[in-house]
Amino acid sequence: MATLSYVNIFAHDIDRLAEFYSKLFGFEEITASRTPLYRGYVCGGASLGFSALDAYEMLSLERPGGQGEKNLVTFDLESQDEVRRLVAAAQTDGATLVKEPFETYYGWYQSVLRDPEGNAFRLNYPGKGA
């Protein structure tokens, strides 16, 4: 069985975006993996990484063009109150609210935001049954 080790977000300013997420969630940096093109953070069972745009070429990937979402990262939280609290904190630190906290048709409580570079992410409370 495969396991997820890293989710990486490409960023124009990896220091600013890494600081946004680490401050919001209290993630600890994996300093051993720090390079001029990368910052990594402990994030539950996987790690969250931030890659400079030059990493596209290093990885032989084409930079995406056009509009639209290329990914959506979801962060699970422990309560509806924590979702609301972190929505406010994220906005204070430069995030843009896309969708106010709401209960989904499948019983989760979440909100959709964009980080300071415009990447979409969700703050989610999966409820007691998750």
TrEMBL record:
Under the heading CDD domains, the entry gives: PsjN_like
InterPro entries, per the entry:
Glyas_Bleomycin-R_OHBP_Dase, Glyoxalase_6, VOC_core
Checking Pfam families in the record gives: Glyoxalase_6 (PF18029)
The UniProt record lists the VOC domain at: 3-126
In terms of superkingdom, the source organism counts as Bacteria
Q: Which Gene3D superfamilies match?
A: 2,3-Dihydroxybiphenyl 1,2-Dioxygenase, domain 1 (3.10.180.10)
**What PANTHER family has UniProt attached to this entry?**
BLR2520 PROTEIN
Question: What is this protein's record name?
Answer: Glyoxalase
